[in-house]
Design goal:
By secondary structure, the protein is α/β, with parallel strands linked by helices. The chain has one domain (2-235): Rossmann fold (3-Layer(aba) Sandwich), CATH 3.40.50.1820. It has helices at residues 42-53, 75-86, 89-104, 121-131, 173-185, 218-235, and strands at residues 2-10, 13-21, 28-34, 57-60, 109-119, 138-142, 159-165, 190-195, 208-209, 214-215. The strands form 2 sheets. The protein has an 8-stranded mixed sheet, with helices on both faces. The protein has a two-stranded antiparallel sheet with strand order 9-10. It is globular and about 45 Å long.
Length: 236
């Protein structure tokens, strides 16, 4: 397994991603990994490595800027990092599309075969990537936020998979239904996998705050990665 940090830019903002792949002479599909609201920390890098173990190039992208990180339990601090992007979907789309360009430029990547996955805030990011009309084969939201912003959608060409905890307090049932309606009206090939008895951040072992609605669930995490693995095999 080869891992490296990769610097890239969104305008004047310096960003730093993390790339993982198994050594090969053949270019491989790229899977962008968008981090949660705490930034491109170890959890996102571990997910990129896990993707590399499936035979792809995993690229944990950076939405905030090189060296800018929150922490697991700092709600106010993480919100301060996330909100400028969550409230400005044009900027969010620009930032993640910069990561798409950087990922495609990795020499080991087959730039014609790209997908994106994201956790929590990162789920919002990859859904916005799809809404922007980006040429990616599929996006996967993992306990992500479905609500759109004010930015109009382009024609969505990506297949969409959402892995969602039924008891997620950040994404109430009406938001799920509204998203399903949005995707259906846009003619998207979409799936919604809902896990009962499961809250927000269910794939993150560090999530252990029932009062806030973030609790790790090993069974849901296993099922989610099974669905993710099948989805990537299908689109690639």
């Amino acid at each position: 397994m080869i891992t490296n940090n990769v610097e890239y830019n969104d305008g004047d903002v310096l960003l730093e991603g993390f790339v993982a792949y198994e050594e090969t002479d053949v270019q491989k599909p790229l899977v962008l990994v968008a981090h949660d609201w705490s930034g491109r920390r170890q959890f996102a890098c571990d997910a990129a490595t896990r993707i590399a173990e499936l035979g792809y190039v995993g690229f944990a992208l950076d939405m905030y800027g090189k060296g800018i990180f929150g922490s697991d339990n700092d709600v106010a601090g993480n919100s301060a990092l996330m909100n400028p992007l969550a409230s400005n979907r044009a900027l969010l789309r620009q930032r993640i599309r910069a990561a798409l360009v950087a990922g495609r430029n990795i020499p080991q990547v087959d730039a014609t075969r790209v997908a994106a996955m994201g956790f929590c805030f990162g789920g919002m990011c990859v859904l916005e990537l799809a809404r922007s009309g980006a040429d990616v084969r599929g996006v996967v939201s993992i306990h992500g936020i479905f609500a759109p912003g004010d930015e109009p959608n382009a024609s969505i060409v990506s297949k969409v998979l959402c892995l969602h905890g039924h008891d997620d307090p950040m994404v109430p049932p009406e938001q799920v239904l509204a998203f399903e309606t949005e995707m259906s009206e846009a003619g998207v090939d979409w799936q919604m996998h809902v896990y009962g008895g499961t809250t927000h951040a269910f794939t993150n072992p560090a999530a252990n705050n029932p009062d806030f609605g973030t609790v790790f669930n090993a069974t849901a995490e296993r099922r989610a990665y099974q669905s993710l693995t099948s989805f990537l095999a299908e689109i690639f």
